[in-house]
Specification:
This protein is of the alpha+beta class. Helix content is 24%, strand content 29%. The protein is built from 7 helices and 13 strands. The chain has helices spanning 4-18, 72-79, 106-120, 123-128, 148-151, 224-228, 243-252; strands spanning 33-36, 43-51, 62-69, 84-86, 95-99, 136-141, 157-161, 171-176, 182-195, 199-200, 203-204, 207-216, 239-240. It has a 6-stranded mixed sheet, with no helix packed on it. A 5-stranded antiparallel sheet has the order 1-2-3-5-4. Strands 10-11 form a two-stranded antiparallel sheet. It is elongated, with a radius of gyration of 21 Å. The two termini are 25 Å apart.
Amino acid sequence: MANKSLTRQIFDYALTQYGSQPEYLWKTYPDYAVLRHQDNRKWYAIVMNVPKAKLGLAGTESIDVMNVKCSPEILSTFLAQDGFLPAYHMNKSHWLTVRLDGSVDNDTIFFLLNASFDLTATRQTKKRLGIARYTEWIVPANPKYYDVEKDLREGGEILWKQSNNVASDDIVYIYVTAPTAAIRYKCLVLEVNIPYRRRHDHLQIKRVMKIRCLKEYDKTLIPRAKMAEFGVSAVRGPRHMPYGLKQEIDLISNEPRKT
């Protein structure tokens, strides 16, 4: 293969992180390697050496590429960038071809590999690998009822309206609605189901949770437009944080990522 170093890095990473060995399934294409889950046998990546002409590229030589599963909401974002192509011989609405010839940086390659693994993994696999130790949520905050941007800072603790299914040790990202329209805080849930009998304006609150702010984000960092790239077009109530958006937040805020 043209880029054995990067290909080897991908295989070594898949083995170390997920216990996956490359599988060579076709006699006609002995260099094509599939990475798949041990339990449901679903593919999460395939590495191939393909002639440029078959990819719609200029030149007669072949290049290494990797197909990964990708959320339809962000496919167009990547396809607009150099180094990405419509999926070669796979569903172009759900898969993406990534060039492994130096066109795409390694961080993005492994980000997409992780995202593809997550999209195709069973809940049991995620739990076994520690991916699902806790749940991450996006919850809305309406300044009309409470000006959280005035009160909350990194390290600070506040009581927040209890959201169903949120548990202790979960992570809550607070999305402040218009006029801010951005994710502003990442918080750890310290305690849940605390009785609360006070009334806030027109809201009747019976239970609250205690949260601690771990990170405060500038309002320009994760605006609604950025969230929409990962399928989050509205936050009317508590919703799960998409894995791809969580990875993007970690990347652009320089937080350590679980890769």
